[in-house]
Amino acid sequence: MRKISALLSLVLLFALVLAACGQTAAPAAAESREIALDSSAWSFPAPGDNYRVFYEIFTGSFSDSNGDGVGDLRGIMNRMDYLNDGDPASGRSLGIEGIWLTPIFKSPSYHKYDVTDYYSVDSRFGTLEDLQALVDLCHERGVKLILDLPINHTGDQCAWFTKFKIAHQTGNTADEYYNFYSFVTPGSGGAPGGYRQIGSTGDWYECNFDSSMPELNFDSEAVRAELVKVAKFYLDMGVDGFRFDAAKYVYLNDNRRSGDFWDWYLARLKAIKPDLYTVAEVWDSDGVTDEYYSAVNCFNFTTSQTNGLIAATAQHGNVNAYTAYVDAYLDRIHAIRSDAMIVPFISNHDNDRASGYLTVASGNMKVAANLYLLSSGSPFIYYGEELGMRGSRGGSNTDANRRLAMLWGDGDKVKDPAGATYPASKQIETTAADQMADEGSLYNYYKKVLMIRAAHPAIARGDYTALSLEGTKLGGFVADWEGQRVCVLHNTTLSGADLDLNALGLSAFTKLSAFVGVEDASLSDGVLHLGSQTSAVLVTGA
Predict the structure, then answer these.
(1) Per-residue buried b or exposed e for 342-360, using 16+ beta carbons within 10 Å of the residue's own CB
(2) What is the pTM of this model?
């Protein structure tokens, strides 16, 4: 794609004012600033539009509706006004356009990735009727709801696995469940790692994560038919799609065969629901995720987590390296499938929370939000990220510490999950209630960023062209979509900068439509002043 280069000079500034959108001159004080709401510019995506900002909810830790300490579906319904109140012009909600629920199916664990029954909701979370009510409410608000569907393995208490074991223990090879799970018969030498013996038989079942999570046999036509049936059950309820857990484990260490399965599976699901939203967890390098993109979009792990490109850039790194990566990534996946999307995030339920290594006080959390939310594709926010919640495995080495109770501050009785040991002294002192009332909070910052994104649909959907600004760490991109052109520029450094748009070949961008960051931005006579740790959105026209 087209690249633009120029040598820019940097001017040191130390103002500590929060910038807002829709202004071209800095107001006298941050306290007086308000977002300019324009309902004609900001609207919900069309129902078939999958370019959405999703919010991941670890279901049992989010909101408790019945006082038992466990988050549930009714609790999520009670918090819809916080996520999306259904009025794009109100400015009262966060502005989420999609929700991902971690597994809600019947299961003995707190995390529910060891499913016992795919056709029922775990009683601690509610009922199928509650799920239907949540689906209906989401759709009333213009929000898509996707379910986490862990199908590479089940729980060992699943009826399918019980029947599989009985078939092997009785030697009944004609039983329809005999080949339902992956197994080997290794002989006297025993099976390799990742297998457990089936009772006293000579057969060993595959279990790559834990002995309580046996792997299904995807060579079985009966298994494939059942998994289509499971998905159809929820699509018929109105669920908008799925997040697929551990997608590369369908055929362990054989990405080609695993990718072929997802091609087959997604073709059948899209025949049921053509505008299906799907995203896969393929926790690996881009070279591996490419093998899955013919069927499904994949979370982008290269840019996420502690050592990811977003964090490196947010910590005063070079924006040009980040935008060049996104540009090349989009070119590559679009060559595989024309409607492919990048799916960025900075942390999720399997990662240490981002505020622990980016930090709110440094401004790096704000910069990271700008980088991945004001960009192409369909980004995912992890619940509580917008508050700067903390949580890490720590010395206890438990993922429960990454999945702590949402801090509502209004009497919600939701508790930390079993096994959590994260010290309360390390958690933030503010709550959602506190931050909603504080214009300078991280919550309100996230809300502003999402409003800017929603008001400029070309940012997510447009043909992406990275800018290459030589001699500086500042950078950005131009996006073109349905006659709209936007230019997004980021300054991750601790110094302000003046950018001559004419010299950069950006003279068509004559209006500063929005800015957000630690400092201000202004546009005068073709020169954009971009404060430190601040991003700006420019548009064409008067």
Answers:
(1) bbbbbbbbebbbbbbbbeb
(2) 0.92
Distance CA 519, CA 514 (A): 13
Helix, strand, coil percentages in the chain from 3-state DSSP, rounded to 5 = 30, 20, 55
Reference 388, options 437, 420, 428; nearest CA is 428
What beta strand segments (E) does 58-122 contain? 98-101, 105-106, 117-121
Stretch 433-442: mean pLDDT:
97
Using one digit for the tens of pLDDT, what is the confidence trace for 250-295? Answer: 999 999 999 999 999 999 999 999 999 999 999 999 999 999 999 9
Tokens matching residue 378: 């369909």
Q: How far is CA 440 from CA 17, 310, 443, 531, in A?
A: 9, 23, 8, 17
pLDDT of the residue at 33? 34
Amino acid at 523: L
Chain centroid to CA 286: 17
Can you tell me which residue has the tokens 């939310």?
A: 373
What are residue 98's DSSP bridge partners? 54, 144
Q: Tens digits of per-residue pLDDT, 326-362?
A: 999 999 999 999 999 999 999 999 999 999 999 999 9
Res 41: pLDDT: 52
Cα dist from 253 to 17, 247, 507, whole Å = 51, 11, 51
- The DSSP code for 215 is B
Is the pLDDT at 35 greater than 50, yes or no? Answer: no
CB atoms inside a 10 Å sphere around CB 33: 21
Q: CA 32 to CA 210: how far, in whole Å?
A: 55
- Count of other CB atoms within 10 angstroms of residue 334: 16
- Is residue 281 within 8 Å of 244, Cβ to Cβ? yes
Q: What is the mean pLDDT of residues 401-423?
A: 97
244 sits in which H/E element: strand 241-244
